[in-house]
Amino acid sequence: MTPPKSEPPLAPNAPTPPLPAGPAGPRPGRNLRVAILDDDPSVRTAISRLVGASGMVGGSFSNAMELLNALPMFAPDCIILDLYMPGLDGLEVLNYLRKTNLAAPVIMITAQDDPSLRDTCLKAGASAFLRKPLQATELLATIAEAAQPRH
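RE: above sequence
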């Protein structure tokens, strides 16, 4: 039996797979707005291209203040936050968002391999926690799941 092929990591010039269908797929007739905060331009570009090619609207931000200043106008359905950045880090931004009662789900991303980080982020209110390098299908499914309306 051959082992299953793993998906290559998300790269800036990689082809973009379609958004998964079914319960984790997008809500019909609505373009999800995804805010992407990462200090690495190649990561921002790759995620922006992926969400755009999947029919979502991506807003790309290189630092926390850019994101926080844009929130009233951009009004994201989902926010992707890098955990470690100069200035305010992703956890500080997450804590601020929760204190201001912003309802948008937050997906934390990091290249760090520390299991306690996942627990810390989820306890702080993150909807999901993904490790870099990101896999396109996993990220798309996570965005779609996080952006589902809660009842």
